[in-house]
Design brief:
Layout (H helix, E strand, L loop, with lengths): L1 E6 L6 H17 L4 E9 L5 E10 L2 E9 L2 H22 L3 H16 L1
Parallel strand pairs: 1-2
Antiparallel strand pairs: 2-3, 3-4
Helix pairs in contact: 1-2
């Protein structure tokens, strides 16, 4: 998986960039992510508001999440929670048709027991 991190207005230190890389490596293991673009920026009059935007390319779709917080780590964590939920939803809706049928048969067998 290709991960590209773009930092605008010196909003992120190297520690945050390493944190983003490790978090997306974990996502790659759990889900089928082709590539990810991450943008860390600071907004507001004094740059106190940090924003994190993640654009993930998955088979057949693109997932985009943008979160803001006072600290960059908090914004990254909030966005990652949403990304995980959206990836799980994508995984469930784009399953192979045969796998859903087997799942229903197994569930029906467990209910009858």
């Amino acid at each position: 998986m290709n991960i590209r991190i773009q930092v605008r207005h010196e909003a992120a230190r190297e520690s945050i960039q390493k944190y983003i890389h490790s978090a997306f490596d974990q996502l790659r293991l759990a889900h089928e992510v082709i590539s990810a673009e991450c943008i860390v920026d600071q907004e507001g009059s004094n740059g106190h508001l940090k924003t994190f935007e993640a654009i993930l390319h998955v088979p057949g779709d693109t997932i985009t999440v943008k979160e803001s917080a006072d600290e960059a780590h908090v914004a990254v964590d909030a966005a990652l929670k949403i990304v995980e939920r959206l990836l799980q939803k994508h995984k469930e809706t784009h399953q192979k048709p045969g796998s859903q049928i087997r799942h229903k048969v197994e569930r029906a067998a467990n209910v009858e027991d």
